[in-house]
TrEMBL record:
Residue ranges of every copy of the Phosphoribosyltransferase domain listed in the record: 142-227
Source species of the chain: Candidatus Nealsonbacteria bacterium RIFCSPLOWO2_12_FULL_39_31
Name of the protein: Phosphoribosyltransferase domain-containing protein
Family: Belongs to the ComF/GntX family.
Pfam families on file: Pribosyltran
Length: 238
C-alpha cells in the first residue's frame, strides 16, 4: 500500500534535482558528486583539522565552551549546498529538501564510524520563534532532525526547547552582535527529559557557534550532561 501511495505521489508531484533540475530526485548523483563530505571531525570554533575539541577545551585554540563538539557534513561555500539550504529555508520553502541534506550528515557520520557515540543520545532541533515557524510552515532544523532520528534510530524531542524571543536574523551580524542577539532567548520546558543525558543539537548551518553555544548554556543549566552539535554545513564569517 505504501509503495502504491509513493508511486502515485511521484506521478502527481515529480521530484527534480534542486541544483540542475534532473527529474527523479531532489539531489541527483552528478550534483552529489560535486559535494565534498568531511571525513574528519573538526573543532567547532577554530575549525582546525589538527585538533578536535575534547569535550571542554580544544587542544589547538584552547577555547573552553559549553558546546562539547560538532559534527558537520560539508562546507557552506559549496554552491550546491548553499542553494539547497536556501531553497529549504527561504521561498519557495521546499520542505522535502531536508531529506538530501540529512543524507549528507549520515554519510559524514558513516566516515567517522562513531555509531556507539550516539547510543542513549537525544536529538533536539534548534527551535524557531513561533511567529517565524508559522510564517515558514515548518522548522528546517526539525525536519532534518526527524530524518536523522529515523535513519539513525535516535529519539528526538522537539518540545523540550523553545525560543521565547523573536530576534533579527543572524546572517548580517558580526560575531559579537550574534552573541548579543541570541543571549537569553531559549527556554528548556522539559528539564526532566534532558537531565544527565548527552544532547545532540541539530541545525542547518554552523557559523560562529553563537546559537548552539547559547542553547548549550541553557540545556546544561537545566541538567544536560553533554551538549554536542550536528549541522549540515559549516560557514565562516569573512
Amino acid at each position: 500500500m505504501e509503495k502504491i501511495k509513493n508511486f502515485a505521489w511521484n506521478i502527481l508531484f515529480p521530484k527534480f534535482c534542486a541544483n540542475c533540475g534532473a527529474e527523479g530526485t531532489y539531489l541527483c548523483p552528478d550534483c552529489l558528486s560535486l559535494i565534498e563530505i568531511f571525513e574528519r571531525q573538526y573543532c567547532p570554533f577554530c575549525f582546525s583539522s589538527r585538533a578536535v575539541a575534547d569535550g571542554k577545551t580544544c587542544r589547538h585554540c584552547h577555547r573552553t565552551k559549553k558546546l562539547n563538539g560538532l559534527f558537520c557534513a560539508t562546507s557552506y561555500d559549496n554552491f550546491i549546498v548553499k542553494k539547497i539550504i536556501c531553497q529549504l529555508k527561504y521561498e519557495p520553502f521546499v520542505r522535502e529538501l531536508a531529506r538530501p541534506l540529512s543524507s549528507l550528515i549520515i554519510t559524514h557520520l558513516a566516515f567517522l564510524k562513531k555509531q556507539s557515540f550516539f547510543e542513549n543520545c537525544l536529538l533536539i532541533p534548534i527551535p524557531l520563534h513561533i511567529k517565524k515557524h508559522k510564517f515558514r510552515g515548518f522548522n528546517q532544523a526539525e525536519e532534518i532532525a526527524k530524518k536523522l532520528s529515523s535513519a539513525l534510530k535516535i529519539p528526538i524531542n522537539d518540545k523540550a526547547l523553545i525560543k521565547i524571543k523573536k530576534t533579527p536574523a543572524q546572517t548580517e551580524l558580526n560575531n559579537k552582535k550574534r552573541r548579543e542577539n541570541i543571549k537569553n532567548v531559549f527556554l528548556c520546558k522539559q528539564p526532566e527529559t534532558i537531565k544527565n543525558r548527552r544532547i545532540i543539537l541539530v541545525d542547518d548551518v554552523f557559523t560562529t557557534g553563537s546559537t548552539m553555544e547559547e542553547v548549550a548554556i541553557t540545556l546544561k543549566k537545566s541538567g544536560a550532561r553533554e551538549v554536542w552539535g550536528i549541522a549540515v554545513a559549516r560557514s565562516r564569517l569573512n
